[in-house]
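Hi R.,

As promised on Friday, here is the backbone we talked about, encoded as structure tokens. Could you run it through your design pipeline when you get a chance and send me back a sequence?
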């Protein structure tokens, strides 16, 4: 071992957790309120339409408390149906009500704002572009509500990447006014890329930056921590849009691994042992209990 190598090996390893890792306020409110509803109504059937959050541990915990996760609506409703933080379209609200459910709406207020902005834009004659993940429930509801308010269903479009917009360039050029909203968990980098492209094509471009404050803070902190770390560990479901974005952002800054569960760390033991400064962050739907187990495991590997 050279002198330089031995000096590096005496530097203390650090494992640092980002300040805003784990549940955001919208998810915390949804989880806490759902448990409270069951506690206050032990004899009522309590259901959530879709997974309350993208985390199987939380879904299992809720099921153990007697809270059902519905993948589709039954013919006839019974008890309370909870709307998760991603929100639903007005059509779905009407359908749930017509089945006979009592609705408790836990849509995050930041998601409601995006729905409203998209509707406002379409009602004011804009061709509306929603920047977000195809088939994500939040995006589907924003799209459906805006489309239902438009005279022309072709006036609302979802783009997951720049290529999708390039594919409709003639439509964009033809539109008198173009408006943008974003899924709340998108990245600022994607917005900038799209605005740079659209500003060359559109006569009037209105940008509603609807990335939620919690996402912005989480991403900015993760970038800062990424710059100080030679390995970043992102904890959270691969189905979670905001967790996947965190991993993508960090991959461009430093060596990054994205795991759902502490047991997956064994696949990266070499990297973890070599890393001097390890940063940890987690998506908005990752419970503290999982983050703590990941940190314990990282400490043990080191
Ligand atoms: S990520 Fe933002 S918009 Fe989504 S639930 Fe959390 S706070 Fe609300």
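Update: got your reply. Pasting your designed sequence below so it's all in one thread:
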């Amino acid at each position: 071992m050279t002198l330089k190598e031995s000096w590096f090996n005496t530097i203390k390893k650090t494992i640092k957790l980002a300040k805003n890792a784990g549940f955001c306020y919208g998810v915390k409110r949804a989880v806490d309120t759902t448990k409270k509803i069951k506690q206050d109504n032990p004899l009522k059937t309590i259901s959530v339409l879709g997974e309350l959050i993208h985390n199987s541990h939380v879904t299992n915990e809720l099921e153990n408390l007697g809270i059902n996760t519905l993948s589709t609506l039954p013919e006839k409703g019974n008890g309370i149906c909870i709307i998760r933080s991603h929100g639903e379209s007005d059509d779905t609200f009407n359908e749930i009500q017509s089945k006979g459910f009592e609705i408790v709406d836990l849509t995050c207020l930041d998601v409601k704002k995006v729905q409203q902005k998209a509707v406002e834009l379409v009602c004011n004659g804009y061709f509306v572009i929603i920047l977000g993940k195809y088939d994500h429930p939040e995006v589907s509801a924003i799209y459906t509500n805006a489309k239902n308010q438009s005279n022309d269903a072709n006036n609302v479009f979802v783009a997951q990447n720049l290529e999708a917009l390039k594919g409709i360039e003639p439509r964009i050029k033809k539109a008198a006014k173009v408006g943008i909203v974003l899924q709340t968990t998108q990245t600022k980098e994607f917005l900038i890329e799209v605005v740079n492209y659209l500003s060359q094509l559109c006569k009037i471009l209105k940008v509603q930056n609807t990335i939620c404050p919690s996402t912005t803070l989480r991403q900015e902190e993760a970038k800062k921590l990424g710059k100080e770390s030679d390995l970043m560990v992102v904890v959270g479901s691969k189905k979670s849009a905001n967790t996947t974005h965190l991993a993508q952002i960090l991959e461009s800054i430093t060596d990054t691994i994205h795991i759902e569960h502490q047991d997956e760390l064994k696949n990266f033991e070499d990297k973890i042992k070599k890393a001097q400064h390890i940063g940890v962050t987690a998506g908005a739907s990752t419970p503290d209990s999982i983050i703590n187990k990941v940190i314990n495991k990282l400490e043990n590997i080191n």
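One thing I noticed while checking it: Residues 24-27, 85, 108, 110-111, 184-185, 212, 214-215, 242, 284 surround iron/sulfur cluster (CB under 6 Å).

Thanks again,
M.
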